[in-house]
Design a protein that fits this description.
By secondary structure, this protein is an alpha+beta fold. It has three domains: 52-89, no CATH class; 90-352, Beta-galactosidase, Chain A, domain 5, CATH 2.70.98.90; 360-599, no CATH class. The chain contains 17 helices and 21 strands. It has helices at residues 3-22, 27-67, 70-81, 228-232, 329-334, 356-374, 380-394, 396-411, 413-422, 429-443, 451-470, 501-504, 511-530, 541-556, 561-584, 587-600, 609-635; strands at residues 94-98, 102-107, 112-122, 128-133, 137-144, 150-152, 159-164, 167-173, 179-186, 192-200, 212-222, 236-241, 246-248, 255-259, 263-269, 273-283, 286-292, 298-309, 318-326, 490-493, 508-510. The protein has a nine-stranded antiparallel β-sheet with strand order 7-8-9-10-19-16-15-12-13, with no helix packed on it. The protein is elongated and about 110 Å long. Belongs to the OXA1/ALB3/YidC family. Type 1 subfamily. Keywords: Cell membrane, Chaperone, Membrane, Protein transport, Transmembrane, Transmembrane helix, Transport.
């Protein structure tokens, strides 16, 4: 250490010591601080003593109520709850109903389903899959007594009346032979729970003015899949109008909707599972609330306030159904053919398959083929490969037509370049374009012939983009290095948040997505080479074609491995088709055929009025452009 460095360290040390000395508090400041702390401690002790006294008073009051004679306590309950006061006290019990597919638990405190577990599924941590459990759900009904008391089922204890292993009645007693029964039935091999509300001799206990039974339903939505941000895109409160379409609340933010129209069902939907409340007749109206959560173990909280028709003089039960199960397209669609014939539930629309055109492609083409392949039990990886092969084979005529159009344009490249050399510059743009189109017409080539086949393939591309993220068959199915085809396959991941990268890419890299992007760049190179027809391209178009695969990598990195695997195989097949076309198509022979078409070309027909006016407008535009250029040159 040299002399200057040593002096520097000494000075720094002295500055620190001096700063500490001159900034230390005085004796008066220390005393004031001590008095302040003492006063705070006194206030806190006083608050604590007051809280203890309040708690003691509450406990004494509760003890006093408990210590009251039964007759006095019953009188108080009767005054508060009327004849239903006999059910205001009790001990909470839990009743279990189950079949081979699911297990539901019901609590006697409130008489509702407090837990639903699907036996054949697990969450992303391989734990039992609960749609909700304990305080994660609440269901209550409100009714009005004859003396206008507003009561809710959550305040009462229900008596358990066993019926069978798969059916139970929870009874809210209101006196001798008077009760409100909630009947739950879980059939074998079914995710549907029958729910009935039965009134027994309550004509004198409930208000004759009651025309509806009000319902409050809440559920906290659990994270079931590995990628929370991606799963949130499919978590939506969904509902169906009685005689109309299925609609949804927004998935990315808080949303509240007041629906004045009648509804048939209301669903709390996740990416692969749903809880659905179905009306026997209809819901009169509804207030639907979806709250988006961030710093929470739950993704959302769903709330519904609705009502069903109810008349005390009607002895028929109020019938509803709960569905707690997977978003399986075939399973949900089958309910319209079996349990709910003629009601047009359309529960299968819980599975997002895209807009009308894309949904039709999925419904009538993709899903039947995929189901047929999976019935072979050949594994999901091979099934996706064969599905890709079948689709590419079916689209082969369109692909071939598109390639032939590009090949024809390519062999005409020297002649197009000759026209460009003969008519150079912006002033000759119209003439150059007319001569080029005249050449194409003579040889029988349409510049748009290659675009139409590609556009016809787009519905399949976008339909599959919607299908794979919604296919529950892919869930927890492994293939190669991907342990779950329904979510991203991360070969590299990190926990540190990296600005922009973590936001748009995530904290991982998907190998299928990376390979797909690389192969897409290779395919882009081949496509650009074969479409080099000699015509001037738009500035930046070539760069954009290479940027697109990189953007796709960022966009699809968190998408399901099954989707990226499909895109990878599809792009590889396209590259192989391009190689095959270039190998088997003799471009010299193709050029000879095109030249032969010139001799067969018919005399040009008289231009239509529209074309004549269009060409005249182009000439006028060119003349105006030349005039402006001359004026600019004179100013210089």
């Amino acid at each position: 250490m040299d002399k200057n460095t040593l002096i520097g360290f000494v000075l720094i040390f002295l500055v620190i010591i001096g700063f500490s000395y001159f900034n230390q508090p005085s004796k008066e400041q220390i005393a004031a601080r001590q008095r302040y702390n003492d006063s705070i401690a006194i206030v806190q002790r006083a608050q604590a003593d007051a809280a203890v006294k309040v708690l003691e008073v509450e406990q004494q009051a509760q003890s006093a109520v408990i210590a009251l004679p039964d007759s006095v306590r019953q009188a108080e309950m009767l005054d508060k709850y009327g004849s239903f006061g006999v059910s205001s006290e009790g001990t909470e019990e839990v009743v279990t109903l189950e079949n081979d597919l699911m297990e539901i638990r019901l609590t006697t405190k409130g008489g509702y389903i407090c837990s639903a577990r699907l036996k054949n599924y697990t969450d992303y941590e391989a734990q039992p899959l609960y749609l909700f459990n304990n305080d994660e759900s609440n269901f209550e009904m409100t009714f009005i007594t004859a003396n206008n008391r507003v009561l809710t089922t959550k305040d009462f204890y229900f008596e358990v009346i066993p019926a069978s292993e798969q059916s139970v009645t929870l009874r809210l007693n209101a006196g001798e032979n008077k009760s409100l029964d909630l009947v739950y039935t879980l059939h074998s091999d079914d995710y549907m729970v029958d729910f009935s509300v039965v009134s027994n001799n309550l004509q004198t206990e409930l208000s004759p003015a009651m025309r509806t039974l009000d319902i409050q339903w809440m559920q906290k939505l659990r994270q079931q899949e590995k990628g929370r941000k991606y799963e949130e895109r499919y978590a939506r409160l969904t509902y169906k109008y009685l005689s109309d379409e299925v609609e949804e609340l927004r998935e990315s933010k808080d949303d509240i909707q007041n629906i004045p129209n009648k509804l048939k069902w209301i669903g709390y939907k996740d990416q692969f599972f749903s809880s659905v409340l179905i009306a026997g007749d209809n819901f009169e109206s509804a207030k639907l609330d979806s709250k988006y959560l961030t710093d929470s173990p739950y993704m959302k909280i769903y709330n519904t306030s609705t009502s069903v028709p109810y008349r005390i003089e009607n002895t028929e039960p109020v019938k509803l159904n709960f569905y707690f199960g997977p978003n399986d397209y075939a399973l949900l669609k089958n309910y319209d053919k079996t349990k709910f014939i003629g009601q047009n539930l359309e529960l299968e629309k819980l599975v997002p398959l895209g807009w009308s055109l894309f949904r039709a492609v999925n419904k009538y083409i993709i899903i039947p083929i995929f189901d047929w392949l999976t019935d072979w039990n050949i594994g999901l990886g091979l099934a996706i490969f064969l599905l890709t092969l079948i689709i590419k084979t079916a689209l082969f005529p369109l692909t071939y037509k598109s390639f032939m159009s590009s090949a024809k344009m390519r062999v005409l490249k020297p002649q197009v370049e000759a026209i460009s050399a003969k008519y150079p510059g912006q002033d000759n743009a119209l003439a150059r374009q007319q001569k080029t189109m005249e050449l194409y017409k003579q040889v029988g080539v349409s510049p748009m012939a290659g675009c139409v086949p590609m556009l016809l393939q787009m519905p399949f591309l976008l339909a599959l983009f919607m299908f794979f993220p919604s296919a529950i068959e892919l869930r927890h199915q492994s293939f190669l290095w991907a342990d779950d085809l329904s979510t991203f396959d991360s070969i590299i991941h990190w926990n540190t948040y990296i600005p922009l990268v973590s936001k748009y890419l995530g904290n991982h890299i998907s190998l299928f997505c990376l390979l797909m992007s690389v192969v897409t760049i290779v395919n882009t190179k081949f496509t650009m080479d074969q479409q080099n027809t000699g015509q001037q391209q738009m500035p930046g178009m070539k760069v954009m074609m290479y940027i697109m695969p990189v953007m796709m990598f960022f966009f699809l990195n968190s998408y399901p491995a099954g989707l990226n695997y499909y895109y990878l195989i599809s792009t590889l097949i396209t590259v192989l088709q391009t190689y095959a076309f270039r190998f088997f198509i003799d471009e010299k022979t193709l050029l000879v055929k095109l030249e032969a078409n010139k001799s067969k070309a018919k005399p040009a027909k008289k231009k239509s009025g529209f074309m004549a006016r269009l060409e005249e407008a182009q000439r006028q535009q060119q003349a105006l452009l030349r005039e402006r250029q001359k004026q600019q040159q004179k100013r210089k």
